[in-house]
Design brief:
The chain has helices at 12-31, 36-45, 49-62, 65-89, 94-97, 114-126, 133-153, 159-194, 203-219, 226-242, 258-286, 291-316. It is mainly alpha-helical and 320 residues long. It folds into two domains: 16-196, no CATH class; 201-320, no CATH class.
Amino acid sequence: MNTLTTGPALGAPQDGILAWGIRVIEALQSGLPSWTEPVFVFFTLLGEPITYLVLIATLFWCVDERRAARTGIVLFVSAGINTALKETLAVPRPFIRKPGLNRIAETGFSTPSGHSQNSAAFWPVFLRPLANRQARIAASITLPFVIGVSRVYLGVHYPTDVLIGWTLGAAVSLSTLFALPQIAGKLSPALNARFPRLAVMPVSVKIAGVAAGVFILNAFSAGDTRMSGVLFGYAAGYLLLVDVSDDSKRFSAAAGSRAKKILRVILGFTGIAVLYLAGDAACALAGADNLAVCRFAQYALAGFWISRLAPELFIRTGLQ
């Protein structure tokens, strides 16, 4: 993530909004009892990438790979958009304008809040299968709300960052859950009738489409290629995973005993750790000039491991 501490000069309206945001942060920090700080730290951790990684990978390997694929792609698309917007807007964080305001360490730019956006995109999609509709809706609203408020209280985001993040994340999740399925349901029959080859589109063409979308995200991300990398690797891996004609070689997360699923998790996350550490070492050797390409490859390989290499390993080792 970009660690620059300064952004472009702000005009009077923007300065006024950010100054108001700092006053809100100070009011929260001074008005709430001290015991709320560790509570907000806990909730901000629920919005960390590692939390989503554990949930998505476990879901992919042990519960439902199709549901995991959709949930993961939603998250990575949201995170890629967030990175592009942050790097384009380049708004410095509140504690840059007023040192000492932050209660936790944070880097990069401020607008929009990634924790707020990604939680609003992720949790409604992740929780959709819950049978209790009231509990599902309540959790889908409460978790992003508390995560967003935690970012303001901890002094790492302006209130406006959080509001923008919630709006973008909700747009992503609601589109995924409602708008896109309806559009696809209406357009698919007509398109398939007019262009029958679309129904049997080669996987290489689909991967090329993913690559085109990733290229667009990279164009606005100022060299932060991590999210676009993991999106490409994860989506490409899943497309290859399901492109199997022999059902005996098809991966099923639901198959297998509890013991086998535990072994999948252990083996899977060990692989992620090895790839991550090896990628860090490789990027250190690559140098600053090649860092963007190296990070893209590192995170693409991690995404590809989750959705393609690890499942293939589970099949070959009898952990299916």
